[in-house]
Amino acid sequence: MLNLKTAGIALALALSPLSFAQAHDIKLGEVSISNAWTRATPPKAKAGGGFLTITNGGSQAVVLKSAASDVAKRTEIHEMAVTDGIMKMREMKDGLSIAPGETLELKPGGYHVMFMGIHEAFTEGETVSVTLMFEPGGPVDVQMPVHKMGVKSAMKHHSTH
Ligand SMILES: [Cu+2]
């Protein structure tokens, strides 16, 4: 005879979801990609930024060479930095190199994926698809959930999940 109380606990464990961080992690060989996100844009916006965390668990450097997406005319890898007191963005033409053992966070105010000439505004709750080209490693498709307009981090904004 099955003990119903025990069966109930077993079922609850079986149904408990993976943590979201784990569910969103993407493995590309020794490289893992996590916490990919973007944020909503004003209706007439021409551009949007994409963010993610890249961890290189391997023994050689990997380079995020480029990015591509159907949502924009051009998709570039950018750096945002203060030069002579002015916040400026520039394209990282050679890509972003991630040393062995290094974790690099692309985030507002720093490195980011730049969607230029977006065809439609990004709407909170939707998802933006982007293909990232790593060397070595090749292309990997990443889904970026669209968070609230103006948020600085995806971490404080998990209520919609
Ligand atoms: Cu930019």
What does the secondary structure layout of this molecule look like, with pairings?
Elements: H1 4-15, H2 20-24, E1 26-28, E2 31-39, E3 47-56, E4 62-68, E5 72-83, E6 86-91, E7 96-98, E8 103-106, E9 112-118, E10 127-135, E11 138-147
Parallel strand pairs: 2-11
Antiparallel strand pairs: 1-2, 2-3, 3-8, 3-9, 4-7, 4-10, 5-6, 5-9, 10-11
The structure holds copper (II) ion (CU).
Copper (II) ion is lined by residues 78, 89, 112, 114.
Give me the number of helical elements.
Answer: 2
Percentage of residues in helical conformation: 10-25%
CATH superfamily: PCu(A)C copper chaperone
Beta-strand proportion:
over 45%
Radius of gyration: 19 Å
* Quaternary organization: single chain
Largest sheet: 11 strands, mixed
Q: Give the averaged pLDDT, no decimals.
A: 86
List the helices and strands in order. Answer: HHEEEEEEEEEEE
Structural class: mainly beta
Characteristic terms for this protein:
11-stranded mixed β-sheet; Immunoglobulin-like; mainly beta; 161 residues; 2 helices; binds copper (II) ion
Please, could you describe this protein's structure?
This protein has 2 helices and 11 strands. By secondary structure, the protein is mostly beta strands. It has one domain: Immunoglobulin-like, CATH 2.60.40.1890. Strands 1, 2, 3, 4, 5, 6, 7, 8, 9, 10 and 11 form an 11-stranded mixed sheet that branches. A hairpin with a 2-residue loop joins strand 5 and strand 6. The chain is globular and about 45 Å long. The model is unreliable at 12-23 and 157-161 (pLDDT under 50). The chain binds copper (II) ion.
